[in-house]
Amino acid sequence: MDGISPAYRVNELTPDPNVAFDPKVVKDYITYAHRLAARGLVNSSVGGMVIRAAHPDYEQGICYAKPQGVSLEEVEAEDLVITDIPYGRILAGERATTVGHQMNREIMRLRPDVNCVIHLHHDETIAFLAAGFEEIRSFSLTYGYLMQKPAHYLPASINVEEDVAPIKTFIADTNCIIMRRHGFTVLGRSVSEAYHRTCVLVSEVKRNIIVEQLCAATGRTPEYITDEQLAHMYAHGDAVMYPKLVRKDR
């Protein structure tokens, strides 16, 4: 993988006395991890979340992550570890990260605008695609404005948690990776945005299932948001979702 030096190994314990846990980042991590679990989106210890924080000694920042064997539902402040981004060295904490952490780090290495990655083995997403549907279509007026880029679909034969090489070929053009038989990975400029995108994605999957069931029962045709409408939503997402205040001169 580009940027990886043979001098270091993933999960090599390399404590850095200049790296300390930031209480605010820790609080955000635990808060949003438990929110994901409260929505029923967490399965066992699989899946995960990483948050990037700036650090003066690390050009690409540092990553807060949960260790292997701990679920987002269970994770507490004392469980977290901090790694660097290029190599996966453990800078703070004493437990190994999951194999999926190399995917998270590669995404952040290639996307400096991304500061949070959420990866979940979502039941309905796996089931919907396993039922033979090729993609998740949009029926709502919120999905496109929040996601802001088209989803990228990976076949079941490609696992970018184990082999991150394919990520560089598509990651610039998406904020959501749909992984057949696996789940999804959502990107955000902040943990809040990644969480909101996760929520709107799982809602859209649920709408797909409901619409397909109702249309199958009634013989009606689903009314999808068109590709042209979605492109407009992608382009105007910030203006709609994050409008800036305009101060009136007095």
Automatic annotation (TrEMBL):
Question: Pfam families, from UniProt?
Answer: Aldolase_II
Q: Which InterPro entries match?
A: Aldolase_class_II_sugar_metab, Aldolase_II/adducin_N, Aldolase_II/adducin_N_sf
* Claim: Transferase is one of the keywords in the record: no
**A GO molecular function held by the record:** metal ion binding
Q: Which domain of life is it from?
A: Bacteria
Q: Which GO terms describe its biological process?
A: pentose catabolic process
**Alphabetic keyword roster:** Lyase, Metal-binding
Q: Which residues form the Class II aldolase/adducin N-terminal domain?
A: 27-209
GO cellular component labels: cytosol
Q: Does the keyword Lyase apply?
A: yes
- Put simply, this protein is called Class II aldolase/adducin family protein
Origin organism of this chain? Rhodovarius crocodyli
